[in-house]
Every structure is written in C-alpha cells, then in structure tokens.
C-alpha cells in the first residue's frame, strides 16, 4: 500500500492480528463452497493475479496485500466467517464494488477481503410505499433497473452506479447527484441488517417510516466505512419517478456569478430544481478533450470561467419547460447577464449527454494521469479560490507542469457545498507532490471551517487528517464507539480512525 509514497512509514501495522493460514482456509472451506473462495495459499493456490482486482482500488492508488478473498452468499455465512475471524484474530476488510476513492476497501496488511458481490438478491419491493429491501451486494444500477417498471427511482445516483453496491453506498454514506432532491442516506435508509464484529447478526431491517424506540443504531453504520460491522441487508425508501426530467447547461463569465445565479435559479425553479452541479473551465476543457460534449457553441462559450448543470424533476413537462424557458430568457436578457450562454436539453439523448459530461469527469481525470482527489466541503463562495490557491502553490513550488502536476481543477455539487478538487500528476504519484499538497489543502479547508471529506469518506487516505474536521472530543467518542462494537479491532483496521 502507498507504494512510493512518503507515507510508507505510516502504513499502520497490526501486531494484534493474524494472517490467514492454510488451517484458516480449511475452516473457511467448511463455511463456503470452493467457488466462493479465492486464496493464494495451498491447497487452492489461486494465482496472485486472480486476486488483483480485489487488491487494488479503482484509482490504482492503493495496493492491498490480502492472500484470501471470501465471497459469501448469505448473511449466515458472513456471520460464521466473522465469528471465526474474531476467534483467530484475523482482520477483515468489507468490500463492495471497490469504487471507493479513499482506499477504504483495500487490505492494508493481510486482512481477509470479504467481498459482498455474491449477495445480490432483491428481498422485497412494495410499489405502494416504495420500500425496497435488498442484499447489500446489489449493484446500485441493478436496483434502479429493478424498480423502474414500478415508476420508482433510487434516492441516490452517482457516476459509479454500474459497479458500486448499495451496501458500499450506505457504508460510505455516499452523496452523489440526487442528494439535493432526496437528502442523505441517513434519511432514506429505513433499516439495516448488519453482522457485528463478533459474528452476531443485528437485524434492524425495519420497513417503518417512523420508529422512535430509543437509539437509532443503524445510523452508526451509515458512513461507518466497514469499521463497525458488515452491512448485509438494506431497507431503503425509494421515491416515485419524476414525471418530467429536464436539464440546462450554462456557461458563466466569472465564478463570482455563481452565488447570484444559484439564488435566481432556486427562486425561479422552486420545487422542481433537483440538481445544481458545478464544473470549472479546466474540467470542462478536459471533458471536451476526452470526447464528451461539446454541449455549448464554442464561440458563445468564449472565455467562460465555469459551467453549471441544473436539473429539474417535476410533475408536468409543459409547466417545467415554461419555467426553464423563462429562466433562460431572464438570464440572457438581464442588463448584466449572469451567463454567457446556456442550453435546454431538447431530447432524452441530449439530456443524457449533458449528464454524461458531468458524470464522466471522474473517468477523464483518471485518464489524464494519477489523481490526488480531495472531496471537501467549503463555503460556496470559496470554491474557486481554493482551487486557485492549490494551483498557485504548485506553481510556486516549481511542481506545476507536465512533469509534475499537470492540472488542478474543481467540480462538484454546488447545491450541497461539496467541491471535488482534483490535482493530476500526469506521470504518477510522487512523494514531493503529495508533500506540497498535504497538509496544505487540509489546513486550507480547515481555515474555511470546512470538511476534509464531504461524501467520499475517510478510509485509509484521510485517517491522519480527521482532526482537521473533528475535535479531539469527537474523535475520542468515535474511538469509544469503535471499542464497544469491535474491541478486538478486527473490522477494517487502520481505516477512519487515526
Ligand atoms: P467500496 O469501494 O467497495 O467500499 C467503500 C467503503 O465501504 C470501504 O470502507 C468498505 O470497507 C466499506 N464497505 C463496502 N461494502 C460494505 C458493506 N456491505 N458493509 C460494510 N462496509 C462496507 N461517491 C459519492 O459519494 N458521490 C459520488 O458522486 C461519487 N461518484 C463516483 C464516481 C465514480 C466514477 C467513482 C469511481 C466513484 C464515485 N464515488 C462517489 C465514490 C464511490 O463510488 C462511493 O463511495 C460508493 O458508495 C462506494 O461503493 P462501493 O460498493 O464501491 O464500496
Ligand atoms: C463526483 O461527484 O463526480 C464524484 O464524487 C466522483 C469524483 O469526485 O470524481
Ligand atoms: Zn461527488
């Protein structure tokens, strides 16, 4: 892990934990069928390459060491595996779709990887209430497809929908593109089934909208990043599909127009506004270079500094289109227009290509080189200045350019105050690049009273930076909670808590 990084010394070691042995493997074989076990140990001796996808994260930044990957099919199997691991002091890394961006799903030493991908059945769906109960390993997009014929949508959507799992979404408390409309998973998740670090099955798979019977334990696992238990089942409230969905894409001359624009759009669109997304000029140009868009006429875009995608989800197409057309007219005809130009999608395919540009940014960044990704909350007014400050710092350190940091850009969820600051190292991660970026960025975020993780979580990447956003008292109580659930510290060790 953290290969060729200055953090090599800070890879946590786990002297309290044991590595999986052949005897352990023999025991796992009593719980799981052979097809559910991958191990480099004899007698299975699976080639290391077959474990590779489980031992590296989506970015290719975190390289794990697990010699064994287990893919249970039932909650009971998860329980038996964990009970055994607890008895043998074997560390466990819960893994969903492995799309996380903070190294949380990768084994730091030789903890066993418990991949939930084979637990992928829908347990029930009630089209009247919209309550969906599913295994944690269901892929988000599959769940969307499952409920689509009933005219329901998942309350969460993100670019990784084709690979990430609902259990992973819940464990990271993922935000994504619909948070502005449907709120966070802390509100939409009604119940969870979790296997605790001693193997006990905690059945809180409630389908009740209201339940004030004491402490709401499930909330601890939402955003728990697999450090308190393994989520095996999920009950989630899915809203009815909007009857009319539209989007507009706007080019702004200056970043300073964003706040007034946000106000105008909110006022004019009111209840039908469902997303307000931000893309800075560097990110937009990058997307175009990678074949996304163009959405807007090049001449009309001119020297626009940034772009905004606004989505509406309403109940009446004519009504919504009238509002959107009025908005565009108002924006273009003002004495000092807040935008250079804008377009309203005219067809489902245009609607999709506007979203494709926004959702495709993560993959474009990945193709540009090796990204340092900082997912932060800062006041909206500071989005641009934070990005500029980081670029200027790299220039001042002589680290900006094709042999160092080739691009610094910002995009994100304006409506949620969530900036994705992406810093691209064209030719790979280097300790001096990271040393220039950190803790500089964390200090900058803290100076704005922001959060060092808005939606991606802490994982392995930011455990040492937790204190920039959490007080000592908060961290102490987080430790106490961890101690209560996982006194042996076997569950995703080295993640979240420093
Ligand atoms: P993994 O990556 O496998 O795991 C993530 C963490 O959750 C790890 O700590 C793991 O141990 C734990 N975990 C996973 N499953 C379980 C379980 N069943 N029980 C207990 N712990 C578990 N994130 C956003 O918030 N918003 C976005 O808009 C967004 N867009 C993305 C776009 C792309 C292209 C990519 C690659 C990533 C994006 N992400 C986004 C990050 C990522 O997709 C989310 O964090 C997602 O929720 C992770 O789900 P996963 O199943 O891949 O989990
Ligand atoms: C996004 O909003 O696109 C995601 O959180 C992923 C990213 O930060 O690149
Ligand atoms: Zn995001």
From TrEMBL:
<dbReference type="InterPro" id="IPR016167">
    <property type="entry name" value="FAD-bd_PCMH_sub1"/>
</dbReference>
<keyword id="KW-0285">Flavoprotein</keyword>
<dbReference type="GO" id="GO:0071949">
    <property type="term" value="F:FAD binding"/>
</dbReference>
<dbReference type="InterPro" id="IPR016164">
    <property type="entry name" value="FAD-linked_Oxase-like_C"/>
</dbReference>
<dbReference type="InterPro" id="IPR006094">
    <property type="entry name" value="Oxid_FAD_bind_N"/>
</dbReference>
<dbReference type="InterPro" id="IPR036318">
    <property type="entry name" value="FAD-bd_PCMH-like_sf"/>
</dbReference>
<dbReference type="InterPro" id="IPR051264">
    <property type="entry name" value="FAD-oxidored/transferase_4"/>
</dbReference>
<dbReference type="Pfam" id="PF02913">
    <property type="entry name" value="FAD-oxidase_C"/>
</dbReference>
<keyword id="KW-0274">FAD</keyword>
<dbReference type="InterPro" id="IPR016171">
    <property type="entry name" value="Vanillyl_alc_oxidase_C-sub2"/>
</dbReference>
<dbReference type="GO" id="GO:0004458">
    <property type="term" value="F:D-lactate dehydrogenase (cytochrome) activity"/>
</dbReference>
<dbReference type="Pfam" id="PF01565">
    <property type="entry name" value="FAD_binding_4"/>
</dbReference>
<dbReference type="InterPro" id="IPR004113">
    <property type="entry name" value="FAD-bd_oxidored_4_C"/>
</dbReference>
<dbReference type="InterPro" id="IPR016169">
    <property type="entry name" value="FAD-bd_PCMH_sub2"/>
</dbReference>
<protein>
    <recommendedName>
        <fullName>FAD-binding PCMH-type domain-containing protein</fullName>
    </recommendedName>
</protein>
<feature type="domain" description="FAD-binding PCMH-type">
    <location>
        <begin position="62"/>
        <end position="241"/>
    </location>
</feature>
<comment type="similarity">
    <text>Belongs to the FAD-binding oxidoreductase/transferase type 4 family.</text>
</comment>
<keyword id="KW-0560">Oxidoreductase</keyword>
<dbReference type="InterPro" id="IPR016166">
    <property type="entry name" value="FAD-bd_PCMH"/>
</dbReference>
<dbReference type="GO" id="GO:0005739">
    <property type="term" value="C:mitochondrion"/>
</dbReference>
């Amino acid at each position: 892990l953290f290969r060729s990084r200055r953090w090599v010394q800070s890879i946590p070691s786990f002297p309290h934990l044991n590595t999986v042995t052949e005897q352990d493997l023999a025991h796992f074989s009593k719980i799981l069928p052979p097809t559910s076990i991958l191990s480099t140990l004899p007698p299975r001796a699976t080639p290391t390459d077959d474990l590779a996808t489980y031992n590296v994260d989506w970015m290719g930044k975190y390289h794990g060491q697990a010699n064994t990957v287990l893919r249970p099919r039932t909650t009971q199997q998860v329980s038996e595996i964990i009970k055994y691991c607890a008895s043998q002091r074997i560390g466990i890394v819960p893994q969903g779709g492995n799309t996380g961006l903070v190294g949380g799903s990768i084994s730091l030493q030789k903890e066993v990887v418990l991949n939930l991908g084979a637990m992928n059945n829908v347990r029930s769906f009630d089209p009247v209430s919209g309550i969906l109960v599913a295994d944690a390993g269901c892929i988000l997009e599959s769940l969307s497809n499952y409920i689509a014929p009933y005219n329901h949508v998942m309350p969460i959507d993100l670019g990784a929908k084709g690979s990430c799992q609902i259990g992973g979404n819940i464990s990271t408390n993922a935000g994504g593109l619909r948070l502005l409309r449907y709120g966070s998973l802390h509100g939409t998740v009604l119940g969870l089934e979790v296997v605790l670090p001693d193997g006990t099955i905690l059945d809180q798979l409630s389908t009740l909208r209201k339940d004030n019977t004491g402490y709401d334990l499930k909330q601890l696992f939402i955003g728990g990043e697999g450090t308190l238990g393994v989520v095996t089942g999920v009950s989630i409230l899915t809203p009815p599909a909007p009857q009319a969905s539209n989007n507009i894409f706007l080019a702004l001359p200056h970043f300073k127009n964003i706040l007034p624009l946000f106000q105008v759009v909110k006022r004019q669109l009111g209840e039908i506004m469902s997303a307000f997304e931000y893309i800075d000029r560097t990110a937009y140009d990058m997307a175009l270079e990678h074949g996304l868009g163009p959405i807007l006429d090049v001449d009309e875009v001119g020297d626009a500094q940034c772009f905004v995608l606004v989505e509406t989800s309403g109940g009446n197409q004519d009504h919504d289109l009238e509002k959107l057309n009025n908005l565009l007219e108002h924006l273009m005809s003002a004495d000092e227009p807040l935008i250079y130009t804008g377009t309203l999608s005219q067809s489902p395919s245009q609607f999709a290509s506007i979203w494709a540009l926004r959702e495709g940014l993560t993959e474009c960044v990945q193709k540009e080189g090796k990204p340092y990704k900082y997912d932060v909350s800062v006041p909206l007014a500071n989005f641009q200045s934070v990005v500029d400050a980081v670029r200027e710092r790299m220039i001042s350190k002589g680290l900006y350019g094709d042999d160092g940091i080739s691009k610094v850009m910002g995009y994100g969820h304006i409506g949620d105050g969530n900036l994705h600051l992406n810093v691209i190292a064209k030719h790979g991660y280097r300790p001096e690049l990271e040393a220039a970026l950190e803790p500089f960025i964390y200090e900058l975020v803290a100076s704005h009273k922001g959060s060092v993780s808005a939606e991606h979580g802490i994982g392995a990447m930011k455990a040492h930076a937790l204190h920039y956003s959490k007080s000592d008292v908060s961290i102490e109580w987080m430790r106490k909670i961890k101690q209560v659930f996982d006194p042996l510290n076997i569950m995703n060790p080295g993640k979240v808590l420093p």
